[in-house]
Structures are given as structure tokens and as C-alpha cells.
Design goal:
Elements lengths: L5 E11 L3 E21 L3 E7 L14 H13 L4 E7 L10 H16 L6 H16 L7 H6 L2 E6 L4 E5 L5 E8 L5 H6 L7 H20 L2 H7 L5 H5 L6 H10 L4 E4 L6 E6 L5 H13 L5 E6 L6 E2 L1
Parallel strand pairs: 3-4
Antiparallel strand pairs: 1-2, 1-11, 2-4, 2-5, 5-6, 7-9, 7-10, 8-9
Bound molecules: L-homoserine.
Length: 310
């Protein structure tokens, strides 16, 4: 049995992006989880979990996103070995930055390498999405898809599963502000309405369509105008104190648009990275929280290539 450790950097992602609930996703270039693993005779062993929020990550392989996804890969490949793992979180759980999705995607990519790269990217996405289903209480692949494929992804259909990747504009700057508030995706999904009106459906279809056009043509103006959500962010806003104030502050300081990242509580802002104002936007959004006694981490980042071996 080879004991070579394989190391994967699995990036944060932002999902929904206004109108594309459970369908749109965008990989960031940082932060990342680092998932390391090597073959063992059988079963799964999580040797170490470190990094922000690691105390909240279960070491029981039955309920850990990395191992649930990796196990699916081993099953599909008919593997006759197990995996020992070390998980270094760079993305804390309950952030809305695709933390469990990054771990699941990293676990799937790692296991696939150990199996001799038998699975396609779509098959790896399905393995990682299964882990998301178990962990977050709902099948959604909008974080794991960009985490594996990189760039901007659109899930056309879940059954049968069909996803496409679009290269986002080079100057699409991203600022993420993560207040020290925990919102579990499973809780954020419980507050959603079960039905939407035709009016809201029309609004979302229009904005989702123009978002895809903007990503394909590199038009930051139409991307920003298309980040509109009549249903999901309004239902979740009460879970994130100072959300509207933070979004307003970002836009007042040059962001093109600001919105709830995924299921929250992170606040995502887009800006034109040719302007170099990412740091200033981050400081201003952070101040909304620190002025109210809430710690807040920030990242100035950009679209990324998805999971990579390092
Ligand atoms: N689309 C999912 C949701 C993403 O909003 O619940 C979770 O990060």
C-alpha cells in the first residue's frame, strides 16, 4: 500500500448570486480548505482537523463531509482500500462561503486521485453533492460544482444532473465579509417559502438569464444589475444582523453590487478589480460589524480555478 500523501486545495465558493438559488455558483481563488489523504488498508480515519471552526467539524467519518464524499468516490470506483485524512479548514463552517462544499469537493477530488482518476468531474460533483445533502439537509450542488469545475457554474437540471461552466470576467473583483455569526445552511433553508409567485418567477428568470449573458460577455454592469433576489435573501435577512447596512456601505464605497453570500451570513460584494478599491470596501463593510461589537473577517479575492492538487 503506497503511503504517499496527496494534498488538495479546495476553495471557497459563493452560490445563488441573486436570482440563481441552488443553480449559480462561483469559485473564489481564496480562502481554501486543505485536504490531505493517503491510502490505508480499509475504512476512513480522520487523523487531524485544524483551522478556523475546526472544533465544529465532526471527526466521525459517517457525518464528515470529506469522508462522505470520498466514500462515494471509492464505491463508484470499486476501490479496495480506505483513506487516512488530515483536514485544514481555511473556510469556517456556517459562513455561506461553501465551507462544507469545499471539504466535500476536496474529499471527492482527493479520493479520485487515489483511485487513479477514474471519475469525470460531473461524477465527482455528484459524490460531493451527496455529502452536502447529508450535511445540510437538502441536495444542492451549487457550491461543489464551481469548487470542482472552477469559474462560474450553472446547474441546468438536477435530475438528470447537468451543469455548465462559464469563464467569468477577469476584472470581476470579489470582497467577502464574514461577521462572527453562525448560520447553518440547514437552518437557513428552513426559513424559505415553499412556493413562489409567478411574478417572482418571471423576475428571477429574467435576471438569471441576463446574469449568464453578463458572465459570458464580461459585462460587469449587467452582472451587477442582475444580482436580484425577490425570494431567498428577503426570507433570510432576519438571520443576519446589519445585512442591509453592510450591503449599503459596500455600494456607497464603490462596490457594483452587494448581496448575501449563499445561505449567509457572509456578505459578498462585486467590484471592478481594475479600480483597486477592494481593500477599502472590505474595511468599510467590516466597520459596520466592528462598530456594533461583532468581529468580522474579510477577504479581497477573485474568481478561481477550483480544486487543485498542491
Ligand atoms: N443554495 C444553497 C442555499 C447554498 O442557499 O441554501 C448554501 O450555501
Amino acid at each position: 500500500m503506497s503511503d504517499e500523501w496527496v494534498r488538495i486545495a479546495a476553495p471557497a465558493t459563493t452560490s445563488n448570486i441573486g436570482p440563481g438559488f441552488d443553480t449559480f455558483g462561483l469559485a473564489m481563488s481564496e480562502p481554501c480548505d486543505i485536504i490531505e489523504g493517503r491510502k490505508i488498508d480499509s475504512g476512513f480515519k480522520i487523523a487531524e482537523v485544524s483551522g478556523p471552526g475546526s472544533d465544529k467539524i465532526p471527526k466521525d467519518p459517517k457525518i464528515n463531509s470529506v469522508t462522505i464524499a470520498a466514500e462515494q468516490v471509492l464505491k463508484r470506483c470499486g476501490a479496495d482500500f480506505g483513506i487516512e485524512l488530515r483536514i485544514k479548514k481555511g473556510i469556517r463552517p456556517c459562513s455561506g462561503m461553501g465551507s462544507s462544499g469545499a471539504s466535500a469537493a476536496g474529499g471527492a477530488v482527493l479520493a479520485n486521485i487515489l483511485c487513479g482518476e477514474k471519475l469525470s468531474p460531473t461524477q465527482m460533483i455528484l459524490c460531493a453533492a451527496h455529502a452536502e445533502d447529508v450535511i445540510s439537509g437538502g441536495l444542492h450542488a451549487d457550491n461543489v460544482s464551481p469548487c470542482i469545475l472552477g469559474g462560474f457554474t450553472v446547474i441546468r437540471s438536477y435530475e438528470p444532473f447537468d451543469v455548465i461552466r462559464i469563464e467569468p470576467p477577469k476584472n470581476l473583483g470579489m470582497v467577502v465579509a464574514l461577521p462572527d455569526i453562525m448560520v447553518a445552511t440547514s437552518d437557513a433553508r428552513k426559513v424559505l417559502p415553499h412556493e413562489v409567485s409567478i411574478k417572482d418567477l418571471v423576475f428571477h428568470v429574467g435576471n438569471a438569464s441576463t446574469m449568464v449573458y453578463g458572465m459570458m460577455t464580461g459585462d460587469l454592469g449587467i452582472i451587477s444589475r442582475s444580482v436580484k433576489d425577490a425570494v431567498f435573501e428577503p426570507a433570510r435577512a432576519r438571520l443576519v444582523p446589519f445585512l442591509k447596512e453592510a450591503e449599503k456601505e459596500a455600494v456607497s464605497n464603490g462596490a457594483l453590487v452587494s448581496f448575501l453570500g449563499g445561505s449567509g451570513p457572509c456578505i459578498m460584494s462585486f467590484y471592478d478589480s481594475n479600480t483597486n478599491i477592494g481593500g477599502a470596501i472590505a474595511e468599510k463593510v467590516k466597520a459596520v460589524y466592528t462598530d456594533n461589537g461583532i468581529k468580522c473577517d474579510t477577504w479581497v479575492t477573485k474568481p478561481g480555478v477550483g480544486c487543485k492538487r498542491i
